[in-house]
Amino acid sequence: MNTSQEDIINKVNVVYSKYPLGVDNVSQYYDQLASLYGQFYEDTDYLGIDINHSLQKDVQQIIYTLNKIKVDGLIDVGSGTGYWRKFFKNLKKLLAIDISKNMLIQSKNEIVARSLIEKNKYFEMNCNIIDLDLENIVGYEAVFIGFILSHYSNSDIMKILNNIKKNKNIRYIIIIDSVYGKYRINRKNMETYKNIVSDEKKISVYKRYFTKNNWLELLEEIEMSTRINKSYWGETFFIEVIYI
Question: What is the topology classification, in CATH, of domain 5-243?
Fold first, then answer.
């Protein structure tokens, strides 16, 4: 039996709480970046400094890891434009979740343009992942979280991961995010704000960068550090596959 978009939404308990890091700012920020977002991973002058070699090395390692993952049903959290999605093999069913409506438009366009999966197997939700209870969603065995957790505090990250663990159908979580490596070490701390100017208005969003040690400490708090199956830490990005 086919699952409808309404069925998906009805099975998810959405509580629209106030986002502690500025939900409106985050959605507006990514709305403005949607048309260009996928290019960032291929930019030769990322963040205004020439770190192309390290960035591309990290991107290629992430792609290599994703290519090894065989999954039929995927929940794509912070789906963005769908840049990373195309590297999953044999994908048959997708639930895309993003706080940005414009990102979801780009995501759907990517599905249609590449014919990645059947249209009736693609579902989407425009909301904040911290407000979702995914416990009752069926038909998906993996959750992919790309560059979203770096917008949250430790307590919120633990809440998100614990919520995913409640779903007994989910076998593993794939996480990619930003590293506090040598190209960012000149900053005084691992937390910052990213800015974009739209219609003469500056939109700022909270952004953090992870070290391997503080990431493992966070996972230890929720008893997930020993469940890491695959791990790669580069100078710009990291990827971890966690079995739950």
Answer: Rossmann fold (3.40.50)
Which positions ≥6 away from 216 have C-beta within 8 Å? 225
How many CA atoms, within 13 angstroms, populate the side-chain half-sphere of residue 2? 10
> Which tens digits make up the pLDDT trace of 168-227?
999 999 999 989 877 666 555 565 655 555 555 666 777 888 999 999 999 999 999 999
d(C-alpha 173, C-alpha 154), whole Å? 17
Q: What are phi and psi of 109, to 5 degrees?
A: -60, -40
Q: What percentage of the chain exceeds 70 in pLDDT?
A: 69
Q: Is the pTM of this model over 0.85?
A: no
Contacts 24+ apart (CB under 8 A), 8-13: 8/95, 8/123, 8/125, 8/137, 9/125, 11/136, 11/137, 12/125, 12/132, 12/133, 12/134, 12/136, 12/137, 13/132, 13/133
Q: Looking up tokens 């890491």, which residue turns up?
A: 228
DSSP 59-73: HHHHHHHHHT-B-SE
Contact 238, 212 (CB under 8 A): yes
Strands (E) located in the chain: 13-14, 73-77, 93-98, 122-126, 132-133, 142-146, 172-178, 191-198, 201-208, 228-233, 237-243
Kindly state the average pLDDT of the residues 227-237: 93
23's CB contacts (< 8 A; 6+ apart) are: 99, 128
